[in-house]
């Protein structure tokens, strides 16, 4: 076959032959992926802009709130640098622009790897290359689709912000900043797809880059104005869009950074693809031992081995973020001089009178959703192993379906729960030491564990869907996506209390702002257990594959 392909390509076929076909094929296969991501990301922008006056009023109190938000290091660490909070465009860029840029990076990494390395791993790329199609055409088609989606996202943002009456220059700067950030991570996804023969590893590396960029930005923005680490923000791709200062004397030259880096990464991806074998990564997989050790003689050991890279990446990232944000907790108390601002922060923290406690409650509300996303991703290994055919090979042995499913579910329950507990400790550790208040650590730990049933419920939905109706695999992701929207911008958009409570975490007690309530904790834990049991029941009765 190699000789035939070489002869075909030698008769007038270039490295980009058939790139249009590759683009259309990627669009046909992944159109819903890109459409949903783009529309959801875009919706954050106009929704936040229309709710501007509910956050920053047009009076002296509103100006005081804006000044307090801009001066607060914790808010800068969470949301990025504020340049103009007294106008709707500048506020929108600060509140959701940086967040949108980061999430657009997640979209780009997942989308490009989905259309390149995952297709190659599944064997479909080899089928396409059996025709007269260039070596780089499939990568070019996938990258082109990612860039097109980034451009569409930018156009929607620009059109909606201009339509809301914000200045055209600021709208274009904001749209270009977010679209070019996504383009950078199109390049990141294309490069990581060349490094390993595993799509799972490529996703892990790509998402780690996104997480590292956000953490670097948070450290830089959370430091003082004269801090020696402020310059680190210039090394983070998710910081470049805010640094272009949309709606605040735009610095157009900053946008050259993502443009040049995106072009460089995409060129690097093509260069790396030319240097590796089809089906392999740039880093050649080493042959393993002829016989596995006792640590790999069961389905449980296999599941733990498959989950280990993701556990390390997610666990380290979440714990590092908890440490960074915990170091800024005491700064939150500086807003007490502004009654209006202090009251807003108390609402973020479920009404806690102590601003420090309000901060801890608010951060736990955000981080617990990320933990739930991680737990759901661990459960997704079952579906991916089934689609690849590897699950069938394991089930052909004496391993029962219940044991195989349990081998994946148990780590997804245990490890995220332990990390959630560690987050509670590390968020409050520095503050507890500084104030010599060991009980604070125990209270925040209790607050973290009180939210664990929400993680288990999301996990239960994922297991139930996989066991009973695997075609509905999008449902659990909709649940966590909605939870992220509610926790991140629900308060800003003025969602009614009924919607704020309509998440797996909404009815759970927000300790220490609220007293412990055992009823919702027990009920949701039982529901999670029932969903997991239903998933086990269905998995043992449906066809695998």
UniProtKB/TrEMBL annotation:
Enumerate the UniProt keywords alphabetically: Membrane, Transmembrane, Transmembrane helix
Task: Provide the transmembrane region boundaries.
Answer: 32-52, 93-116, 137-162, 168-192, 204-220, 252-272, 311-329, 357-376, 409-429, 441-465, 472-496, 516-539
Superkingdom of origin: Bacteria
Q: What is this protein called?
A: Putative exporter of polyketide antibiotics-like protein
Q: Which organism is it from?
A: Nostocoides jenkinsii Ben 74
